[in-house]
Amino acid sequence: MAHRIDIADLHDGSTGGSARMHEGSQGGLDGASRESHARTIAGHDVLFCGSVDPSPRWRPGERLHHLFEDAADRFGGLAAVVTSDATLTYAELDRRANQVARHLIARGVAAGDRVGLLFDKTIETYVALVAALKAGATYVPLDPGLPAERIRYMLGDAKIRTIVSMASFSERLAAQDAAAVLLDTDRAEIDARSPDRLFAGEAGETDDPGCYVIYTSGTTGNPKGVLVEHPSICNFVRIAAARYGYRPGDRVYQGMTIAFDFSIEETWVPLMAGATLVPARAGGGLVGEELADFLHERRVTAMCCCPTLLSTIERDLPHLRLLMVGGEACPQNLVMRWSRRGRTILNTYGPTEATVTATVTELVPEKPVTIGIPMPTYSIVILDPAEPRTVARGELGEIGIAGIGVAAGYLNREELTAQKFIPDFVGIPNNASKRIYRTGDLGRINDAGEIEYLGRIDTQVKIRGYRIELVEIESVMMELPQIAQAAVSTFEPEPGLPELVGYYALKPGAGALSGGDILQALKRRLPAYMVPAYLEQLDAIPMSASNKADRKRLPKPTGPRCQPGGSGKVVAARTDNERLLVEAIAEILTVERVSIEDNFFDDLGANSLLMARFCARIRRNPGMESVSMRDIYANPTIARLAATFEESGAAAAVETAPEPFHTPSDFSYYACGAAQLLFYGAYSLFGLWVFDTGLEWTYAATGPVDLYVRSVAAAVAGFFGLTAVSILGKWLLVGRFSEERIPIWSARYFRFWAAKTLMRNAPVALFAGHPIFNVYLRLLGARIGRNTIVKTRFVPVATDLISIGDDTVLRKETILLGYRAQSNYIHTGRVSIGDRAFVGEASVLDIDTAMGNDTQLGHASSLQSGQRVPDGRRFHGSPAVETTADYVRVEAVPSTALRRGLSEVVQLAGLFALVIPAPIVALALWEQSSATAASGFWTSLPTVLVVSLVSFFGSIVTGLAGVWAVPRLARLFLKEGRTYSNYGLHAWLQGLTEKFSNSQFFNVLFGDASAIVHYMRFVGWNLNTVEQTGSNMGTNQKHDNPFCCEIGSGTMVSDGLSMINLEMSASSFRLCHTRIGDNNYLGNNIHYPPGGRTGANVLLGTKVMIPIDGPVQENVGLLGSPPFAIPRMVERDKSMLGAIPEDERLRRLAAKNRYNAVTAALFLATRWLLVFASLAVWQAALLTYDSFGVLALFVAGAVTSAGAVLWFTLMERASLGFGALKPQMVTIYDPYFWSHERHWKLSDWPHVQLFGGTPVKSLILQMMGVKVGRKVVDFGCSITDRSLTEVGDFANLNEGSVLQAHSLEEGVFKSDLIRMGAGCTLGPSAFVHYGVTLGDHVVIDTDAFLMKGEVVDAHTTWRGNPAKLFRRHGTPDGALGAAVYRAPEAVAPAWRIAAE
What we know:
Keywords: Membrane, Transmembrane, Transmembrane helix. This protein is of the alpha/beta class.
C-alpha cells in the first residue's frame, strides 16, 4: 500500500518541534479538548474535539520506536516493566531491545518485513515489540490461544517469514511455515550484541510506513488483517497519553493479549508517560477475586479492560485511580459501582481500523453512558448506511470516523477496503487520511454533543470485548456437509451477558450430526470466544424478503448450554456440598444435567467469566468463603472441588425441659392494674403538688431579681428532690435486687413495676452519659467505675445486679436492663462489664452476661444470656462471635476527676440558671395575661386560640432556625479527624449539635415524602445526586453530627437509619465522616459506622450489622449480624418497577407529591388542634385553680392524657377510613402506598408507648387496631402496622422490640399479617417481620431478627440475626415441641436466598 498521509495537510508539522510533542505528552491538553465542537461543513454535521490545536501530532519520518527512545531518554531510571521476578527500567528495556533488534537483523529480518510475535505474559513480550520496530519491521501479534489453522492462515496472508517467540511455544511453531527466533534459546547470542541504539541505516531503509497488523474477525470464514501505519499510531499515543492522564509512577495492568488492539492503550500509551507496565501472570487470564488480589498485591493504579471483566471484581481497589473501559458497551450500574472520589473512569470507543480509540468520555454516575466526543485530531460523522451522505444531528445512522488515525486498510482485501474506507466527501478539515471509515456501528449525536452508541447495523457483534463477524462462524458451520443452512445470533441468558447461539438446518436425507461434532469442527477453526454457547437445530432458518437470514425471527434457544464433552454417564451428587455445587453450576451454566465428574470447561462448556460468577456464588456458603478461581482451575469437577471443603452436617437443636410458665388469675391481673392506676394518679398528683408549691413560692417574689433567684432555687430543689424520691422509692419498694423470677401481675411484680417507673421518671434520667447519671446509678445500687460513660437507651432497672468497671464506655442506644420478661415472669440477672471495655451503639446485653477487661462488643450486636467475653477479646454480631475488628480507634485523652466534675457543674448551672427559669417566668406572664384578658373560660378561648397558633407555628419556625443555626455555629469549633475530650467545651457543643439537629417532629413532618431530601440537606447531610422517588427516606433517621453524613447518589433509605459519626473511648471522641455508597438500598433499623465496608449498589437488609473490616462489599445484598451476602434485588421487584415507563413514573411522582403535601397539612392541623385543646383544658384549670387548687391541675393532666389517647385513636381509625389495613404488594407509586404513609404520619404519637407494663397498654393497643389477647404485658414494643398485628394471650413484649408488618424493598412495598400465639415472648430489641406466624409459647430471643414469612412451631426458642431455631422446650404435659426441619449449615443460606 502506498503512503496515504497527506503531508501538506499537517500544518507545518516541524514548527512545533519536539518541544511541543513532549509538552503534549506530559502537560496534558487544553480544557477544550474535553468538550465537543459540532460544525456544519457544506451541509454536513461534523463532530470535532474542540481542541485548541487540531493538527496531527506527528512529524514526517517519525516512527513509533522513536517515541519510545525519547521516553527512555526522559524516564531512563524509572521501571518500565515489572513482573514477579524481574524489573526492566526504561533504559534497560531500550538497551535490551537494541540487542534483540540486531539479532533479528542477523537472522534475516529486513526493513519492511512483517514479523510475527507469539508471546504469553512475559517481560520479553515488550522487548520484542520494541525490537521488531527498531529492526524496521511491521509486527503482527499472534494470540497463543488461536487454533493452529488460523495462525497458519494469518502467516500466509501477511507473508510472515519470521516469528519471534519463546521456547515454550517451539512445538506449536514447528508446525508452521516460518522461521522461529526464540529469545530465551538465543539468549547468549543476544547478550553478546551491542546494547547501543542502532545507527542510521543499520536496519536498512524502507518506504513502508506500516507499524503493525492486527487481525480481526472476517466474513469469509477467515480473519482480516488491519494495517496501521506509523503516522497514525504516533499521533494516537501522543494524544492518548495526554488525554488519559497517565503519569510517571503509575502502575498499569497488562491483562490483554497483544493480538487485541485494546492492548495498544495499555502498553504503548503508558510508556509515553513514564508509567510502569505490570503484566499478568502467564497462563489463563485473571478474573474475579484472583484479578482483584493481583491488582491489590501489585498496587496497580491504572487498568484498561472490558466492562465484562471489570464486573467480575466484587470489591473496591483503593489504589486504582484510572480505569479505562472499552471493547463493548459499558453498563450504567458498573459506572455507579466503581465511581469513587479521586478515580477517573474513561469510556473509550474505536475500532482497530481507527487506531485503537477515536472517542472518549469520562464516566460519572449522574450522567448517562455515551462513547463521548472525538479524540483530538479525530472527527466523527453520522452516515446514511446505504449511501455516502450524512444524517442530521440527532438522527440514527452509521458512525463514521475521520482523521489521521484511520488505518491504511485491510491486507489483500482491496474491494473490502474500498467499501469500508470511503473518500472524504464532506471535506473535513485536518483529515490527513482524506477518508472516512464506516464502522458498521449504529449511533447518533445527542443534544449534549456526545455520541450515543446503539449497537451494530451489520452482522458483527462483541462478546466479552472480542469483535466477532457472525458470518465467519456461519461459514465454518456451512462447511459441514450435512448442514443446509446456518445462522448465528446472540442471546442473553442473563441481562448484560450475551452469548452466541448457532442455528442450523440439515439437508434432506443428511446423516446424523451431533452437537458435539459441530462443536469440534468449530473449535478446530475458531478461537474459543467464537464457539457458540448454544446450538439449536431448526427445520429451516427464517428468511427475510431479500432472502437473507432474518435474525430477528430466530427463536430463543430451547436447549441447554452446549456440553462439548463428557462420558455421558451422570454421577449424582452424594453429599450436601456436592448437591449445593451441582445446583449452583447448573444455574450459572443453564445446563440440564451435571455429573460430579464433568469437567467445568471441557464437558460443561464453561468459560472463565462464568466460573468467576460460580466462584462468587459458592463463596456465600459457610466453609466455602475462601474458594478462589485457582481452586476451581485446579479442581475442575464437582467431586474434586467438593473434596477440598470440610464437610459440615446439621447441628441438632437443643431439647430442654418444659419452659416454666405463669398463668395469672383474673384477680391478680385486675388488682395489679388497679394498683398501677392508683400509683400513676398518686405520683402524678405528688409531682403536680411539688410543681405547684414551687411555683407558688416562686411567684411570691417581690421583684424580677427575686423572681429569677427563686425560680433557680425551685429548679434545683425540684430536680434533686424528685430524683431523691425515685432513689428512696426504689429502696423502699424493692430493697436490693437479687437474681430471681417474679410472676407477672403479682404483688411482687407491682413493686418491681413501681420502682422501675420511679427510676425512669427521675429528672436525672435525662442525663444518660453524664457523670451525674453514674452517681444516680450508684445510689440505686449499681457498681459503676471511674471515668465510665453509660449512655443506655433505657435506665437500667435491676441496678444491684449491674457492675461496670473503670474507663468503660457504653455507646448511645445500648440496652442494659438487668431484667427480661419471659413466659409471664420477670427474670432478673447479673450483667458484669470489666475495666476499659467498649459496648457499641445499639448493642444489647441480656441478663447473665459478662465482659472482661479490655473487651469490645461491636455496634448493633448482642450478648445472649450465658455468653462471656474473655479478657482482651473483641466480639460482634448477634449472638456475638469473636472478631479481629477494632471498634475503639481513637486515642485516649487524659481526664481528671476535677475536669469531669467542673464540666458537669457548668452544664447543670446552665440548666438551672437559664433553661428552667425561662419557662417559669413565661408561665408567670401567661397567668398574668390570662387573668386580665378575660374573666371566663369561653371569653378567654380567642386568646387561647391565638396563643396556640403563635406558639405552635412559631415553635416550628424557631425550631427550624435552631436546627439550622446551632449545629453550624458549633461546627466552627468542631473539626473532623481531631480528637477531643469527652468533658469540656467541644463535648458540650457536640451534644448541642446532636440534640438540635435530630428533631423527631420535623422528621415525621417531612419524612416519607420528596421534602425529606431537602430537609436533610437543610440539616447538613450530603446527599449527592438524588434520584427523587417521593420516598427516599423515612421518618426516623438520626446522626451524631449532620455535617459528617454522606449518602451516595441514587441511594434510598427505608427508615430507622442511624449514622454513627463518632469514634469514642471512655475519655475522648473524634468526629468521622460516614459515607454510604451510591445506589444502595437500606432497610430498617441500621446503624452505619464510620469506615463501614460497603460500597456501591448494596442492599442493606433490616437490622444488618455493618462490617468495619474486610473487603468492601459491592453489588450484593447484606443481611444478618455478622452479615452475609444475599442477592442484590429479587426479579419480582425489578419487574414491578420496570413495568412503569419513565414518563408514567414521573407523572405518578408528581401526583404523590401533591398527595403528600395534603398529608403534611393534615399532620400540622391535627397537631395544632391537640395543642389548642390542651391549652384550653389548662386554661380551664387555671381559671378554677382558686377553688380547687392542685386538684384542678391534676384533672387537667388526666384529661389531656386521656384526650391525647382518644384523639390519636381517632386519627388511627380515620386515616384508614375507619377500616383496617390489608396485606399488599405494590410499588411506591401506587396510591395505596401513599395512603399507608398518611396513616403512619397521622397516627404517629408517643401515646402508644404510655402505660408500659400495665393492662391500660393493652387497652390502648386494642383501640388502635391491634388484636390483643388476654393479660398481655407490653413494656414498650413498637407496632408499626397495628391492624395487621395479632398478639395472643399472655404474650410478653419487651422493651425495644418491634413488630413490623411491612417492608419497603427497592421501591416495592410489601405488607402482611403478623400472628403471635398464646404465651409468646418477644425479647429486648427483638424484631419480627411481616408475614410471620408464631405458634404458642414461642420465644424470640434478645435482639433476634425473625425474617418475613417464617412459620414458627410452638414451644421453640429462636435466636440470632437472622433468627434460627435455638432450642425446643417441652410442653407442660412432657411432650416436646413440634419438630423443625433444619437444613445443614452449609446449605442454609442458599435455601434462605431461594425463599427470599
